[in-house]
Amino acid sequence: MAQKIDWAKYVAQAETKLSDVSLSKKPPAEPEEDVPEDVNAAEASLLTKIIRKGLVESKTDIEIQRKDPKSPLFSVKSFDALNLKPNLLKGVYDMGFNSPSKIQEAALPALLADPPQNLIAQAQSGTGKTAAFVLAMLSRVDPNQHYPQVVCLSPTYELAVQTGEVAAHMSKYYPEIELIFAVRGEELVRGTVLTQHIIIGTPGKVLDWALKFKALDIKKIKVFVLDEADVMISQQGHQDQCIRIHKQLNHSSCQMMFFSATYTQEVIDFAEHIVSNPIIIRLKREEESLDNIDQYYVRCDTPEAKYNALTNIYGTIGIGQAIIFCHTRKTASWLAAKMSQDKHAVAVLHGELTVEQRISVLDRFREAKEKVLITTNVLSRGIDVEQVTIVVNFDLPVFNGEADCETYLHRIGRTGRFGKKGLAINLIDSENSMRILKDIEEHFGKKIRFLNAEDCEEIEKIGQ
């Protein structure tokens, strides 16, 4: 069992130091080709936002908790019911939002209530959470007061720009509201006093502007937003910087909003420690989504046998689109080359590609220009392509030699999305792999059935 963290002690320690992470530094070197790739959650979130074409309808129920029983707890079915300023409402409709999404229905009444309510919210990627907190940010601004009133923090330059684009579009009929980006490349002359109402940026840059340049008075901030809060809280440098900014806020008058697609219990514990009396909106446990996914395993002796099993399955089942997960980029590249040689239209995605290259690969896959995407753990979380009907674990996910059940859940969760049926197939090439599979089966309490990859009739049945 993980050791319980004393958040009060941790925060006190973190407040005394400032992380010296430079946003202009190059990212860490990519791992060697035979080393498993870790997931960069901030990049995954960016890719998700970019490849999304409109909102998706979430089929997952949400749970709402109140620390203060007097907090408002109701939902709305139309934006008109929120009593928004007319120019903001016009901007919302101009963006194509006809009615609130599930997260917007639950979150917006609380975010727009008087007195302001603090919120910790979880929602699936693509369900409108960015629009929800941006609308709340814009609604709280008094355009007649020319100083920063809102700070919105994102973990990367690209995510901050994405949020800023939403804010600019939503406020297009409300030009009195001004915003500024506090990101790399944006520099202030010493002595500058900011007059913009909203600052959207990364923690290090905002901290510099506030404490080093004294360009804004954090005590006057009315709304403090953490976007991708799980990334902000889990990454040491960002966490230290966010704590220092949070320490300077006037907690009695500043509304705090934490939004993310995922939350671990550790992150929730931390968020609840620094956010007083929050309303908490969470998705019901994702394990429930396994009910939509039929899971199988195939016994294979060698990589070649795994490849033969894979092509038998691929050639027999009427597949919409498939994602194949490999443990390393070396295996992913080998498999992609082999399938391409056999005239299969495949794409490969791993951490060696730039963000721009990954976007291009994902766009082509989403448009079904390639039906098979071969990848590593870099794509296991957060990326949803609705047409994916099958996930294959060419290699099972492991961490320190043991079953990585969380990664397994995220991998096979790329299928069976939005209430649809999905199929997951695991290729087992050793007794150790079989042990890991049994541990995964026991962890989730879901039967993973044997599949004979040589039996075409059996394969046809599972694809029906």
Can you count the beta strands? Answer: 17
Which quaternary structure do these chains form? single chain
Number of helices: 16
Strand arrangement, major sheet: 1-8-2-7-6-3-5-4
Residue stretches low in confidence (pLDDT < 50, at least 5 long) are: 1-5, 14-35, 51-59
Q: Structural class per helix/strand content? A: alpha/beta
Straight-line distance between termini: 41 Å
Which value, in Å, is the CA radius of gyration?
Answer: 24 Å
**What shape does the CA trace take?**
elongated
Helix content: 25-40%
Estimate the strand proportion. Answer: 15-25%
Largest sheet: 8 strands, mixed
Mean pLDDT: 80
Report on the structure:
- It is a single chain.
- The protein is of the alpha/beta class and 464 residues long.
- 37% of the residues lie in helices and 16% in strands.
- It contains 16 helices and 17 strands.
- The strands form three sheets. Strands 1-8-2-7-6-3-5-4 form an eight-stranded mixed beta sheet, with helices on both faces.
- Strand 14 and strand 15 form a beta hairpin.
- Helix 7 runs parallel beside helix 9 (236-248).
- The longest helix has 14 residues, at 157-170.
- It is elongated and about 70 Å long.
- The two termini are 41 Å apart.
List keywords for this structure.
464 residues; 16 helices; 17 strands; 37% helix; disordered N terminus
